[in-house]
Design goal:
Helices cover about 0% and strands about 75% of the residues. It is mostly beta strands and about 80 residues long. The chain has a 4-stranded antiparallel β-sheet with strand order 1-2-3-4, with no helix packed on it. The chain starts with 5 loop residues before the first strand and ends with a strand.
Length: about 80
């Protein structure tokens, strides 16, 4: 967001073909805690969801569903 230390990130991938489905999306909010010539320190909070459902795709059957919140730290020095 302009003129603040906040940034927003979103990414999504979807695939729906016949009886097969796949999606992976995430959204996050980052706050730049320290930003100077020596070090950058960034804190990220977000949510991610992944679902894979395949029925007889080359003899592969799966129903995987993972979702939840995440926290990340990025340090550049």
């Amino acid at each position: 967001m302009p003129l603040t230390n906040l940034s927003v990130f979103a990414q999504a991938d979807f695939s729906l073909i016949d009886d097969h489905s796949l999606y992976d999306y995430q959204v996050s909010l980052s706050y730049n805690l320290v930003d100077n010539r020596m070090v950058d320190f960034n804190l990220t909070l977000g949510y991610r969801a992944v679902k894979m459902e395949f029925s007889d795709l080359a003899n592969l059957y799966t129903d995987l569903d993972i979702k939840g919140a995440f926290v990340g730290v990025i340090v550049h020095f």
